[in-house]
What we know:
By secondary structure, the protein is mostly helical. The chain has helices at residues 2-29, 33-112, 119-128, 137-144, 153-160, 169-176, 185-193, 201-208, 217-222, 228-298. It is 74% helix and 0% strand. It is rod-shaped.
Amino acid sequence: MKGVHKCEGSFLRKGMLLGLSLLLMMVIFMPAGPVQAADSKWINQVWSNYKAYNKKTVAAYNNYMDQQTQTYSTYLKTQNDRLAELERIVLEDQNKWNEKLEADLADLQKRYGDNRDLRSELNEYARNINPNSLSSPMGIYTREANRNSLSSTMGTFARAINENSLSSYMGDYKRAISPNLLSSPAYALNKTVSDSYISSPMYALMKNSSTSYITSPIYAYSRGKISKTKAQQQISKLYKELTAKIAKDMARYKQQIANNASSSENKIQDLYLKTVRALEAQRNASLQNISDQRKKICGEGLTWEPLLKGLSGDGKVGGLK
């Protein structure tokens, strides 16, 4: 019986020692009330700083993209209005010449129709002024001003400013400011300021400012793995590096958008001037051909003035004389 009592006493002593050890561990690792409150306040401040920075940066991005979209829409309308104006001037000119030349042919036939020596010349003149003939001077002038003709001068410019054409200059401009296209600088810009993309610097900043990610200094500090001083040093360094990267990347992608817009605008302007010159040249060539044929009949050619000098920026718009 004595052995039993002795064993029971030993168990009691061991139990008491174990209980005291557990109590001591709880006291050692239990954080003090005021310190815990201060820690939470700082942790919340880090997160608030991130949210404020994110809000400001995203707002600036949205404002920038709104401006780019508006600028593009205005430019697109300007170019289509310019095409329409060029088309109107040329088509009106063609209609006037068609009426004048038809009346002139009727007059020439009345005056020289009975002259057998001029019969073939009159027939050639009639062919030359026919706008429906593919090979006639007037037909060529008509076709070059047809925006629906794939190989025409007007058609080439119309396709260049078609935003839905994959190979057009306007399409290049539109795609550059589209945040939904993976290859566009606008997509890269959107990704930079978004905390939804794992590879973006904004995501890294968000993650390192949060207690929800085990790799962040805030998480490590909140779990007691590093000191507050070390956490402050790490978050300060990360904040400086990541915000600098965001600013640098935003500037780079904005510059790419600006370069693309400038390149597209320059190409469109060059093509527009080329289109104006080509239409003017074709008009002159067609009228000269018709005029030369007229001289063979009556000894007198046609007279006309430049039509598109004002549109090419070097003079006043001419017209039918």
